Amino acid sequence: MLLEVIATTVKDAVTAERHGADRIELITGILEGGLTPSLGLIEAVREAVSIPVRVMVRPHARSFCYDAEDVAVMLRDIRHIRAAGGLSLVTGVLRADHSVDVELLERLLEAADGMDVTFHRAFDEIPDQLAALNVLCRYKQITDVLTSGGKATAPEGAERIAVLQRLSYIQRQPLILAGSGLTAEGLKDFLETTAVRSVHFGSAVRVDGNPLRPVDPGRLEAVRQILNTWKR
After folding, report:
1. What is the pLDDT averaged over residues 108-134?
2. Which residues pair with 215 in a beta bridge?
3. What is the pLDDT of residues 22-45, one digit of tens each?
4. Which of 52, 84, 181, 200 is most buried per CB count within 10 Å?
């Protein structure tokens, strides 16, 4: 069971690694759903932890549709992240009709030059998620899709996530990474319903459940304990 935890600081990343995270999603702008962090933060986190780090590539929170200037920034960010070494990416791009922007996605993947990529919750704005998953499975670099099943939270989208998980299992990629609104208290029921093998936690493993507070070791360890003992 993979546990990915959001980090917005070096301390978050170190605490997450020490208390059970398998992977870090490194972002800034947590209240905006995550934006590209600074190169200084990226390099510092890479040096501070040994677990995998996936870095958000998202230039703004207005939408998941990007103009030429946005794309130029994204490509520059990817080149900088790639040059830092030992990292992978989180991104997602849509057309105006909320379908996957395949042409732009391919440009970003080319710039990533073999780096693993998570397609983030832009996926939850896509009307036909099953068709979209079939599109994303064409790209070996896209190893994960972060989703709440098209709903505001993953527990609300559990039925859809279960369908996506079955399709992912058949296709063997990308993995379904369930996130948004998950808690330690509801995790067992969620795992039973969806059969997912990868989960993503943000606010629920922070002090007082506040997205602007640091990662809470006790809350994170509670989630890790459930995942360690989960059997299906």
Report:
1. 96
2. 206
3. 999 999 999 999 999 999 999 999
4. 200
